[in-house]
Amino acid sequence: MNIRNTILSAAIGLATLTCMAATEPQTQPEIGKPAPDFSLTTGDGSQVSLKDYRGKWVVLYFYPKDFTSGCTMEARNFQRDLAKYSDAGVVILGVSVDTAQSHKDFCAKEGLNFKLLADPDAKVSTEYGSVMDYKGQKLASRNTFIINPNGDIAKVYTGVKPADHSEQVLKDLVELKKS
To answer: What is the CATH number of the domain that holds 158?
Structure first.
């Protein structure tokens, strides 16, 4: 009976620690601090590094999964507003744990003309405090970062609502560019 109770107690303790680790808050890069650099693959197989965009404003958005309803809505809205971003000298980059091939297919199906970056090991998502566990699989959390031309974090959005997010980012960019 003692061994059974010991094993049960150990199992409960391990489960508690696992749950605590899974729900522990993540730390996003701080506003005013340098954005973590990275190099990731696009749907066309090319490599993109954040440093490639030094001197430009960048909207770096993390999303869970290609071809899902919320992620498709968010991508379509960024595409809808892409001319406004381009006219303002702003680059849109999307990141998820999907493969480069999935991004290629998603861009083709949805007519997306901005880069989606493959982060299959969730390393970059983790560096940006934008990773979650879903049924044992790591996915990117729906967070967005505005990065200024100096490469510093200018604004952070967590728990983004995809329906009106692009419009909010555009409004905030106008204010950020004034300062």
So the answer is: 3.40.30.10
| Residue 4 within a domain | no
Number of domains into which the chain is organized = 1
Name the token pair of 46. 């090319």
d(CA 104, CA 44): 6
Q: Catalytic residue among 35, 40, 50, 71, which?
A: 71
Q: Report DSSP state, residue 152.
A: B
Q: 1 in a domain, yes or no? A: no
The answer to whether 99 touches 117, Cβ cutoff 8 Å, is no
What's the pLDDT at 26?
A: 77
Report the C-alpha gap between 68 and 98 in whole angstroms: 12
Confidence grade of residue 46 (pLDDT, cut at 50, 70, 90): very high
For range 125-138, the mean pLDDT:
95
* Amino acid at residue number 55: G
Residue 107 appears among annotated catalytic residues:
no
Residue 12 lies in a domain: no
Measuring CA to CA, which residue among 96, 101, 106, 98 is closest to residue 67?
A: 106
Whether residue 63 lies inside any domain: the answer is yes
Pairing of strands 115-118, 90-96: parallel
User: Crossing angle, helix 69-80 and helix 165-178, to 10 degrees?
Assistant: 40
Q: Which domain range does residue 146 map to? A: 29-178
CA neighbor of 147 nearest in space, from 27, 41, 39, 53: 53
